[in-house]
Amino acid sequence: MQGVLAAFRGNQLLSRALRSSSWILVGYSGSQGMRLLSNLVLTRLLFPEAFGIMALVGVVTVGLAMFSDVGISPSISQSRRGDDPDFLNTAWTIQMIRGFGLWLLSALLAWPVSRFYDAPELALYLPVAGISLAIAGFNPTRIETAQRHLLIGRLTLLDLAAQAIGIAAMVLLAWATGSVFALVVGGVIGTAAKLALTHYGLPGPANRLRWEPSCAQELIHFGKWIFLSTAAWFLSSQGDKAILGKFLPLETLGVYNIGYFLASFPLSLGLAVVGKVLIPVYRDTPPADSPANARKLRKLRYGLSAAVLSLLLLMAYFGPALVGLLYDARYTAAGAILVILAVAQIPQVIGLSYDQAALAAGDSRRFFVFTSARAVLQVGLLLVGVSQFGLIGALVAMGLSLLLVHPVLVWLAVTHRVWDPLHDALFFGLGGALAAGALWLHAAPVAALFNG
Predict the structure, then answer these.
(1) Which 3-state string (H, E, C) describes the chain?
(2) Distance separating alpha carbons of residues 209 and 25, to the nearest angstrom
(3) What is the pLDDT at residue 8?
(4) How many of the other CB atoms lie within 10 Å of CB of 447?
(5) Tell me, what's the pLDDT at 167?
(6) pLDDT at position 276, please?
(7) What is the pLDDT of residue 7?
(8) Are the CB atoms for 73 and 222 separated by under 8 Å?
(9) Are 52 and 247 in contact, with CB atoms under 8 Å apart?
(10) Is the dihedral of CA 234, 238, 240, 242 positive or negative?
(11) Nearest to 244 by CA among 17, 64, 51
């Protein structure tokens, strides 16, 4: 126990990484706990179609954010000038201009998107939801500075407080109005709360308008591949809802969204850890530099894979029972959806620690090659699967695409000398066997989904 406590103390990189990971776990658990509680309340105040509509709102707003992402956060995290005030203020200026542009685009896209999905409500909801994008553009770069130096504690608490404010607003407005509009306005309130809390709650000077040509050039040079990578990541992370929203009724999309919400818990945790911790770790302790660095990263990789895979398999085994306990009969099919999605995500969990090595080395081009390959496979297989076999075809397509793209991820990992073949073989074998057991255990609800 003393050895464990000693590992968390001090200002060494590993100690800061462990503390940051612990805070991320606290933040993730608190965040997902609040989301789950609000979800349970809102499913009783609203109707399944409401969650289908909000899934489409999220597709557009998240899509706009991702299709315009110039990599401000990873640029600050990996750059040698990441603590330079001119660099930070130039990044903040770019971020602010982008936010207002996204708000304008959300308003312009509202009508055509509402026609495409045959959902007239989107014409009103999207311009209001887009206000969040403009507000987020003012978020201070002190957020990225805290992540750069693995000082996550206070930032985590502020994020949780902002989320609690947004969720409380959603629930109160939904209770008062019974309208989907409550979810839209609550999201805007939560974004504004985060801006206020981080502005006043994080140490450091306030950002100012600044345009330093050399800083802007570095940000744009690194960000051009991040821009393309996040566009591809949008297709991977939101493409399912964008495609299913066209092929499925809003009620079915809402049920799918509940299953996805529960199945994404473990993977979201893993992504939060690697996104905030691994770039500084790879940057400051490259595994190719010494055997000691390689051993430390191997331990981190095995621990991360074991933890996330265990949580994912818990969802696969107990998902239908969890849905039956938490939700009413309208959402029963979400249990089988949860099982299949949990199994489908296993390949992504196994490769979770590899892609950040490219960003830590400033290799945003190869990172783009990987993300674009994943996007092309997922969108292509999703379109074939849902058009030929409906929802079940889409679910199988998602898992198949993640499996097929793993060799590309291995290529990236080999390039940066971080691939661990023993790790992959061990977790693929273990994960595959346990996934087969989960599908066998829940054969009846999964078969019902096939027949449906």
Answers:
(1) CHHHHHHHCCCCHHHHHHHHHHHHHHHHHHHHHHHHHHHHHHHHHCCHHHHHHHHHHHHHHHHHHHHCCCCHHHHHHHCCCCCCHHHHHHHHHHHHHHHHHHHHHHHHHHHHHHHHCCCCCHHHHHHHHCHHHHHHCCCCCHHHHHHHCCCCHHHHHHHHHHHHHHHHHHHHHHHHHCCCHHHHHHHHHHHHHHHHHHHHHCCCCCCCCCCCHHHHHHHHHHHHHHHHHHHHHHHHHCHHHHHHHHHCCHHHHHHHHHHHHHHHHHHHHHHHHHHHHHHHHHHHCCCCCCHHHHHHHHHHHHHHHHHHHHHHHHHHHHHHHHHHHHCCHHHCHHHHHHHHHHHHCHHHHHCCCCCHHHHHCCCHHHHHHHHHHHHHHHHHHHHHHHHHHCHHHHHHHHHHHHHHCHHHHHHHHHHCCCCCHHHHHHHHHHHHHHHHHHHHHCHHHHHHHHHC
(2) 34
(3) 46
(4) 12
(5) 93
(6) 66
(7) 45
(8) no
(9) no
(10) negative
(11) 51
Q: Where are the domains of the chain?
A: 26-224, 238-452
Chain centre distance of CA 147:
16
Q: Which two tokens stand for residue 307?
A: 């933890």
| Residue 279 and residue 332 in contact, taking contact as beta carbons nearer than 8 Å | no
Residue whose token pair is 């939560």 = 190
Cβ(330)–Cβ(448) under 8 Å?
no
**For residue 416, what pLDDT is reported?**
83
Residue 288 neighbours by CB under 8 Å, 6+ apart? 294, 416, 417
Contact 401, 377 (CB under 8 A): yes
Residues of the chain with pLDDT under 50: 1-8
CA-atom Rg of the chain in angstroms: 22
pLDDT of residue 447: 83
Q: What is the pLDDT at residue 111?
A: 93
* Measured torsion, CA atoms of residues 273, 275, 281, 282, in degrees rounded to the nearest 10: 130
**pLDDT (0 to 100) of residue 168:** 94
Q: What gap in Å lies between CA 452 and CA 447, rounded to an integer?
A: 8
C-alpha 59/C-alpha 377 separation (Å) is: 19
The pLDDT score that the predictor gives to residue 60 is 87
Residue that has been written with the tokens 């990971």 in this structure: 21
C-alpha to C-alpha distance for 386 and 401, rounded to whole angstroms: 14
Q: Tokens for 137, please give them.
A: 């553009």
pLDDT digits (tens, 9 = 90+) for 185-198: 999 999 999 999 99
Closest-CA residue to 308 (of 76, 21, 33): 21
What's residue 266's pLDDT? Answer: 86
Q: Tokens representing 327?
A: 């939700």
Q: What is the pTM of this model?
A: 0.69
